[in-house]
Design a protein that fits this description.
With about 300 residues, this protein is an alpha/beta fold. The protein is about 35% helix and about 15% strand. The protein folds into two domains: about 140 residues, Rossmann fold (3-Layer(aba) Sandwich), CATH 3.40.50; about 160 residues, Rossmann fold (3-Layer(aba) Sandwich). It has a five-stranded parallel beta sheet with strand order 7-6-5-8-9, covered by helices on one side. It binds N-carbamoyl-L-aspartate (NCD).
């Protein structure tokens, strides 16, 4: 694996390899031996052109736990605010010897451009590009689902996952719809008609506009944030109306089978797409998703940088 740009880069076996590697790395980390050595002497650059809390910190923690040197670059406060292009930034990183670049960018396709334009020689990991893709989020979600539904083994054959909310603007939904199906799960997308993407019929998923009808047969419900910053029009009448039809509250959660889990990639709009009691309930695995994100990103960096010794 040279780059990770899209969930569609991964075959079933590639995805299972990432999940198994993440599991091993999580176990090694849990033994409390401190940092693991495989990426000693390698440099990972976090290139963030868009705000992020979890993903940026998670990639930083992942690289450091594998003993890589980490350079954090955020567009605010850099020469990007003076108009420097992605190309010139990339050439600077190359000159500094970046072995891998983790990029988040508001433009869909920016990581692909970085990987293919020949500006840098290292690996590129997409940490979220516009409304396009967020493959490491899908991998950490798959890891979390596998831990709960399949005892942390194999793939997700036969699992049923509902992805609910602002599918239109969600790179998390796009990457998950692909990866979960690659792993054998079936996916139901639930959204108001205005927030369902054009061409969704090509995604291979079931489509529903009714949340109440979509809960009684699922193994997991993945709630999506309503992405107001990407909305240039009115997609629904009021926040109250949205949450009364598409928000996950305790009454709706009780319609789910008793084993089914509640997920959210964060950041949450509590009271909008998810009520506070559901977010904090024992069926919510939202904090676990964050922890698993570090293990999965360790695995991705390890596999891309071809780390050798494991102990
Ligand atoms: C998501 C993102 O940035 O795409 N968050 C994340 O990475 N944890 C989802 C979102 O912003 O709603």
């Amino acid at each position: 694996m040279k780059h990770l740009l899209s969930a569609s880069d991964l075959s079933r076996d590639d995805a299972v390899l990432v999940l198994d590697t993440a599991k091993q790395l999580a176990a090694a980390t849990a033994q409390g031996v401190g940092k693991l050595p495989p990426l000693r002497g390698r440099t990972v650059v976090n290139l963030f052109y868009e705000d992020s809390t979890r993903t940026r910190i998670s990639f930083e923690a992942a690289a450091k736990r594998l003993s890589a040197d980490v350079i954090n670059f955020s567009a605010k406060g850099s020469s990007v605010s003076k108009g420097e292009s992605l190309k010139d930034t990339a050439l600077t990183l190359e000159a500094m010897g970046a072995d891998a670049v983790v990029i988040r960018h508001p433009s869909s396709g920016a990581p692909h451009r970085l990987a293919t334009a020949g500006w840098i020689s290292g690996g590129v990991v997409n940490a979220g590009d516009g409304t396009h893709e967020h493959p490491t989020q899908a991998l950490l979600d798959a890891y979390t689902l596998r831990a709960h539904l399949r005892n942390g083994e194999g793939d997700l054959q036969g699992a049923k996952v509902a992805i609910v909310g602002d599918v239109l603007h969600s790179r998390v939904a796009r990457s998950n719809a692909q990866l979960l199906q690659t792993l054998g799960a079936s996916v139901r997308l639930v959204a108001p008609p205005t927030l369902m993407p054009f061409g969704v019929d090509t995604w291979g998923c079931e489509v529903s506009y009714d949340l109440d009808d979509s809960l009684n047969d699922v193994d997991a419900v993945m709630m999506l944030r309503v992405q107001r910053e990407r909305m240039n029009a009115a997609y629904f009448p009021t926040a109250h109306e949205y949450s009364s039809r598409y928000g996950l509250n305790a009454t709706r959660m009780n319609k789910m089978p008793s084993h089914a889990i509640v997920m959210h990639p964060g950041p949450m709009n509590r009271g909008m797409e998810i009520s506070a009691d559901v977010a904090d309930s024992s069926r919510s695995v939202i904090v676990e998703q964050v922890a698993n994100g570090v293990s999965v990103r360790m695995a991705v960096l390890y596999l891309i940088l071809g780390g050798t010794e494991m102990s």
